From TrEMBL:
The lineage of its organism: Eukaryota, Metazoa, Chordata, Craniata, Vertebrata. The keyword Isomerase applies. This is Pseudouridylate synthase RPUSD4, mitochondrial. One of its GO terms (biological process) is pseudouridine synthesis. Gene3D superfamilies: Pseudouridine synthase. Keywords: Isomerase, Mitochondrion, Transit peptide.
Length: 243
């Protein structure tokens, strides 16, 4: 749900329950959220009590989440942790809009290159993302990501502004000052058989691949990427070992 969301998952919960159980089934309960452009695992509960327990696990960060993303460029180093607070800011341009952005605690002074502590932004939330390069080709990478915290758009912001590797199809976080389609390298366009003028139709390549949670026993939920994501992997020759 949210502003500008036409098809909300909550609207189909009663129908889903009837398909799974029978016509008298009570609606399924939503346990967490995914950004509207993100694909992947969603946890639904059959009754309220279990839903509450699972929501608490998400709230207290006891759910292990693993995402896959196709990014532009290659992160350096190939594996690591991004730990930079995030804050929402208004972008003042001819089309004013809001974006999440980095609010680091330190910066380099332009005068002498010394490290300077920045006054903390009161609204900034601490954000931690673990990342690992799985494959790279065609000026793109396939990354495995584990958000340790759950800040809005955290993975997208940490990749784009922290590592300089925006997610393929993330038109919102590929530029700071404007809302415009992502600019793709020649080799990427060629492999995707795409013209730059059509890039705006490219979907966000961010996928919630696996969720692990403990409800008496460990439950491991895996969801393979949707067809568009798999096709892009093939076209870009991003080969990975199947696990």
């Amino acid at each position: 749900g949210g502003p500008g969301v036409k098809n909300c998952i909550a609207d189909v919960l009663p129908i889903l329950a009837k398909m799974l159980e029978n016509m008298k089934a009570e609606p399924l309960h939503l346990c967490h959220r995914l950004d509207k452009e993100t694909t992947g695992v969603m946890v639904l509960a059959r009754n309220k009590e279990v839903a509450e327990r699972i929501r608490l696990l998400f709230k207290t960060r006891q759910v292990e989440k693993t995402y896959w993303a196709i990014s532009l460029g290659e992160p350096d180093p190939a594996e690591g942790i991004v730990e930079i607070p995030i804050v929402e800011k208004e972008v003042k341009s001819h089309q004013s809009h809001y974006k999440m952005t980095l609010a680091p605690n330190y910066r380099l002074s332009p005068e002498d290159g010394k490290v300077v502590k920045i006054r903390k932004n009161r609204n900034a939330e601490s954000a931690v993302t673990r990342y690992r390069l799985l494959a790279s080709s065609s000026a793109c990478s396939l990354l495995e990501l584990q958000p340790i915290t759950g800040v809005k758009h955290q993975i997208r912001v940490h990749l784009a502004y922290g590592l300089g590797c925006p997610i393929l199809g993330d038109h919102k976080y590929s530029h700071w000052s404007k809302l415009a389609p992502q600019k793709l390298p020649e080799i990427t366009l060629k492999r995707l058989k795409l013209e730059q003028s059509k890039v705006r139709h490219l979907p966000l390549h961010l996928h919630a691949h696996r969720l692990s949670l403990h409800l008496g026993e460990w439950i491991d939920l895996v969801c393979k990427p949707p067809p568009f994501f798999q096709k892009t992997l093939k076209k870009l020759e991003l080969d990975i070992d199947k696990d």
